[in-house]
Every structure is written in structure tokens, then in C-alpha cells.
Fold each of these.
Amino acid sequence: MYSKQCSDGAVGNHELYITDIAYETFNQFSKVYGDKYVTSNVQIINPATGQFEYVGKPYRYFTTQHGKSGSILLNFAVILILSKGLRIMAFGVLYDFKGNSNVSKVIKAADLVKEKAFLDAVNYPKPIDLFLLIGHNPARMNDSENTLGTVYKTIRGAHPDTPIQAFGGHSHIRYVFL
């Protein structure tokens, strides 16, 4: 059912503890969602190439369909967004997790915001009406594990007037900020 909806998903820490589960997420789960599975700071060694690759896509630029509702899959909680042809740049950011198996790596948010792929997405040549941050990451700025603030500040520096919405949670409490 989830695979048939207009969704964005992001990897969580539970998918990275055990190598077999990390590879299952990379080889199967992320393939079901395709471009809609956004993992901006999580990479895994592709066993076919021996090189690190993103588990999903590092970002997603999309336009919502005029007059229809879209949904965002965030750790299996569905949140509806009323869409009106919005041009959205989405990032999926896991907090700075350190307990992953050795076949995966989590890029710290402080390093992510300096990477070419991230900066290219923030400075995308097409118009952006909204930046969307999703992830297994506390959205409350005063949470000690929150890394969305680092991403938020970088985007805000380049786009002072563009809305930024974040949907996150790590302590199994969902939270949003605008």
C-alpha cells in the first residue's frame, strides 16, 4: 500500500545497526520507493562496486500536483500536505548516528552542508517554493541530538525568504516546525 502513494521516506538508525538489514534497506526497500526515498546523509557500500553510494537519493526536487493532496512517509507515519503546484526541494537527514555497521556511514550534518551535492540542491537552478526536511532526527531545536538546525541554518543563509518545513522524530515522538 505504501509503495503506491506519493511519498517521501528517509532511513532511520534501526536500519543501520545490522549489516544484513542495511543491505535489505538498500537493495529492496529503497528500490520500491525509488526517487521518493531520500537519504541525504546516509551511504552504504554497494557490494557490486565496493564504493559508497547513497541508500536512497541525496535530495528530491518535485512539484506537487495542482489541487491534489500528497503525503510524506516519515518513519511509517503519514502526514498529508495540501498541494497547489508547489515546487519543493526535499532532504532526508538522519541525526549524527554513530552505531551503524561498518558497511554504512552517516555523514555528520556539519559535513553534509559543505558537500557539493547538498549545495547544488540548495542552489538548484529551478525555482523552489518550499524546502522540506524529513528524517529520523529530532525536530526540536533544543534537543541535543537535533542536526536539522545545521541544515536549516545553511538553507536559510542562501534563501532568507523561502519557507522551510521540517518533519522529524527520534524519540518516537513526531514533531514539526515551520
Amino acid sequence: MGICISELLIVKNVQYFALEIFLLQILVLFCISKKVNVKITTYMQNFKSGTYINQGYYKSFQPTNINKKWVLDDMELIHLLSKADRQLGRLDMYSEHIPDIDLFISMHVLKEATQSSKIEGTQTNMEEALLDKKDVSHENRDDWEEVQNYISAMHNAIEMLGKLPFSSRLIRETHKTLLQGVRGEHKLPGVFRTSQNWIGGASIDDAVFIPPVHTSINELMGDLENFAHNTEVYFPDLLKIAIIHYQFETIHPFLDGNGRVGRLLITLYLVDKDILKKPILYLSDFFERNKTLYYDNLMKARTHDNIVQWLKFFLVGVIETAKKGVETFDAILKLKQNSELNIQTLGTRANNAQKIIQYLFKHPMLDVDKIVEITEVSKRTAYHLINDLEELGILKEITGGKRDKLFTFDSYLNLFK
């Protein structure tokens, strides 16, 4: 008797996904108890990552195509997938019910930009990322610009999703934005590489990993794109994007910026597939805190054909990040409520204070000139508003100087640390 699990997973509506997982668990247990021959049409425990190709004085890694049937045959993975789906569903619910959620999303993007860039060695923190360019020291300006580019790349890519599908073209456009005007601007922004690159090591001779030869990139990226849009064989989208991220990092199609683009693709895919209605899940903080495991699990999938461990790690990241996201949104709502309640004590200045609060939830750093712009009051009145908000514990001065003072919404910033 033969059963092909992938053919039974035909319900594509996300709201029924938890039921699918439950039924799949029952099916696998049935197969085990009855010793049914489950046809594994493509890998998982039998996954083959690829082969090494002799290029003369080095060997490049040629990954196998991913646009095939993938069958779940690991109960622990199925259990984690069910948990991740539930937590992601809870997080997505917030995007429908939280007023002015777009204000809060900008801070999530800012945190993602700083953490994803930090994985690559960029040292800009959230406070520095909030500064205007003129306020950033010259030695830190390149790092600052890389973070700003990441923010722009995310916003532009989300906007492009309304016009372009999740595709190589979208990926190239996103990469072009990411590398504009920064250290990687001479490394073909928006263009797949035309030469060999490598990961780790001082040169290709002592490289930790050598991605596939550049002549195969278009074919490999085409396969990745086809897998993303394959509707003939259903496979859970959370596992799909985990495999896509692994394959993208393995292909390493650009000369620079592959890690940042690859992590950005996770959110783009989930939004494109309507798993998330808003871009509110960002895994770079989890990856940065578990950087060694992140790189080790990607590498073990290549060297030991262990894709299951990478998928488990990825799902744990989704679970933890989604839980933390819900907690953060709860804390934001309480802080917003308390802040709005506190400013009612300001009498006639409460209306202008409310305008400042609204701005701070989107950009929690400002100076007196910004307050003048937001409220259309005189500079003298703006200083009175600053004093009021400092006394209420909403604003905190961070520069320590007498001129050009900057103020942060410290209690809000702390929610993202």
C-alpha cells in the first residue's frame, strides 16, 4: 500500500492550515502503526544538498534544485510547524485590530535593519540609526547608510509587491536599493554576479564555503522562483520560505549583500503569500542572537544533508519572534494608552502634545525644530512642551549639550531592545 502525503495536502487557505497539520500528524502516525509504505517523493530525511564541482584549483558547491515535491516525514518538525503557525496567526491578528499599526511597523523595520546589518558586522545601533545624516560622525556614516538602505529596501520591496510577484526581478531591485551609495556600490548592485565569490577565509584558497559557479546562477534562481510559485504540489509556506532562504544563501547570487537580502526575503515572501497582512515578522534579531547556530545549521544542511535541523531552527525562530512580537504590541498599546492619559494633565497644551506623541511612535527621536514643524508653534512654546513631556517621563534628553539637543522616547525604544 502506498500513500503520497504531498498529494493529500491540498487545502491552500491559510486559515485551515492548523487543521492540515493536525490531519497530517494523524496520517503519519497511522502510516507508522500500520507499517504503510509512505512514498517520499522528495527528500527531508533523504535530502541531498548537492555536489562539489572541480573548477581547477578549487571546488565550488552545486546545490540540487528545490522545485520538487517535498514530503514531511519528521514528527518533531510537524509539531514545530503547528506551533509556528499558531503563533504567526496570533501575530497577524494584531495587524487587523491595532489602530495605527503602520506607526509601529516603522520601528520593527528599524530594528530589523540594525540587527540584520549587525550580523554582517555593521555596528550602528537603533539610536544612531534614528539620527539625521548630519548628526552622524564621519567614521560611522557608512554603517549608518547601510542601515538606512536596508530600511529603504524593505519599504520599496513591500510597495513593489503590489506590481511585481516574488521574483528574481524583485530580488535584484531590492539588492540595488540595498547597495546604493555604500561600501558595496562597486559590487554590481542589482546584478547577479559574473565571477566566483566565496564565504569565509582570506581568499578562495582557504574559503569556508564556495558557492556555485556564476554561469549556473540564472538557472538556480529560476528554479527557486518556480518553487516559490509552485501551486501544483502544496507545501507549507513557512517551510517553503525556510528552504528558499537556505537555497538563496547557498547560491549567494550577488557579490555582496547576500545575507541581508536573504533575510529580507523572508518577510517579503510571507506578505506576498498573504500569510501576513502587514510586514510584522522579522527574524534577524533571532538570527543575530543565535549567530553561530544560524551559520552552523545552514552549513550542516550543505555538508551533512541535514535540512531538517535547519528547518527546525527556522521554525523555533518564527515561534520565538512571533511570541515576542505579540508581547511587544501589547506593551506598545499600554504605553500609548498611558502616554495619552498622562498628557491630558497638560490642559491647553494637550492637543499639541498628542501630535508629538503620534510622531514619536513612528520616529522616537526629535529636536525642538521638529516639534515646531509638527505642532506649528513658536520655538518658545516648543521648549515648554519639551519640559512638560520630560516631566511626564515621555521625553529624555540624550546629548548633554546646551545646543542642538536631541530627545528620545526612551520607554518606547526600550521595548525593541
Amino acid sequence: MSSSPASAEPGYGAAAADGRRRTYEWADPAPSAAAARELDGISFFTEMIAGRLPPPPIAATLGFGWVSVEPGKVVFEVTPAEYHYNPIGSVHGGVYATLCDSACGCAVHSMLPAGAYYTSLDLSVRFVRQITSGTGRMLCEGTVEHLGRRVAA
């Protein structure tokens, strides 16, 4: 076992040799977390889309953004890129699973009163075809079919 930094490990650093690099920034998520305790869900997302609250860092990490939000329905967009790839040259399933989880969770949150929280209980994703950077812009829609006291679907 080596104690060398990850950049010296085999397979790391090769991307820099052929010119590919990605950097990104994100805002402090604390103001949004605080606002989530004070605003109902739809108002919270309205403020976020308007730019008055920072988006969650995961949106910058994966490069996805808002298309629309209404009570019980949220739509995100992403354009697949090489930085989303798994070792076999297609978008990693975790990218679209994360996008699905985000859309569904935000759809539930859009219907909650101020101070209420949610978490995912279950997620099932079927990978029916390969996604690559050539796929182009994709939309992911999360909708709420039922909002109960303890569980939403």
C-alpha cells in the first residue's frame, strides 16, 4: 500500500495530460438551509430560481439546473458531458440516479409547509439505454402522486 497522494496513483492525472480539466464553484449552502426552515417549499424554490438563494452544491457538481417548479412538480435539465462518464465511456448511472432523486425530493419539498423536511426512502432506476455526451440536453421531471403525513409517492 502506498501513502502517495491520489494524483500519483495509476489512472489519476492522465486527464490533465490530454488537456481535459473541469473546475466549478458553488455558494455556501447555509443560507438556503436556513431559508428552508422559514419558507414553505414552493416559496423556497421560487427564491432559489430567482437567484436570491444559492442552489445546492450538487447542482454545480453534476452540472444540472432548474427548468421549472410548481407545487408537486419539478423539472431539471442536464447536458451529459465526458466528466459524467464511467470507465466504459457512458454517463455513470449515479449521475442520473442523483438527478432523479433530486427531482423527486424537490417535488415533495415543493408541497411542504415551512420548517418541514423530507428524505428519500427508496429509489429505483432502470437503465434502459446508454447516455453519452452525444445524447444532448435531457430533462428530468419529478412529480408527486400522493402526499401523506409521513410518506409521499
Amino acid sequence: MSDKNRLRRARLVRRGLLYSLALALLILVLGGVGFWVLDPRVHTLADGLWLAFTTAATVGYGDIVPTTHLSRAFSVIVVLLGLAVLSLVTASLAAVFVDQEVEVEERQIERDLLREIGALREEVRALRAEVNAQAAHAPPHAGATAPERPATMPQKPVS
């Protein structure tokens, strides 16, 4: 894979992590505001944010709990969104580490392939030299003329 594609993929992975973190933060803030507005026992925005976090993370410490039917229904939505978004954040973070590991493996494979190509080129050069040496010392066939051959075979340019 080219360096340009590697950089593009790394940027996309990091951007995905940033977007998922931003989405998680947005859901937590909206959940906190929602609990603050909907539940009469949530007196401060900080309490609402704490309740949104413990609900979204499905921790549920029990220090603050939704008390009205509406805030309980809202907590179901926060739990579902929290599970989805926190899973997304975890997957995005894992993708960052996997992408780094894949990049290291790809570089090693590329180095191994280039080494093998170099060895094959040397082997082809040696075989050409051997064929040319044998052709120079071989007697011509009686009554037959050998077709003209180039001293070396043309090489294809390597891209």
C-alpha cells in the first residue's frame, strides 16, 4: 500500500475516533440536560450529567436514580444510545491500535518482498551470465547456423 493511502487510512481512523468521542460527549450532555429538566430530584446540571453518565455506562451507582415515569423512559433511551456510542468509541479505539499493527506488518512484508525481488534479480543475472558463457564456448552445430541472440535479455522496467 502506498504511503499516501496509509496516511489517508490513518487519518480516517483517527477522525472516526474523534467523531465517536464527540458523539458520546454530545449524548452525555443531552442526557444530562434531559435528566435535569425531566426529573425533579435532579437539582443541578452536574447531577444530571452524572446520572446520564452512570445510566449510559450502565453502571448505576444508585446515588441518583430517575424517579418519574418520563425520566425512567428517558433513561431507557440514554442506556440504548450509551451502549451504542460507547461500543462505537471502543471499536474506534481498537481500530487505531489494529491500524498501527497492520501498518507495521505491511512494512515488514514490503521489505521481505523487496529483498526477494533483489535475490531473484541476482539469480537471473547469474543465469544470464552462465547461458552467455556456455553459448560463447559451445561449438556451432554442423551444417546449421545458430540464430542470433542478444548477449543479454532486455529487462522490463520495474515500476
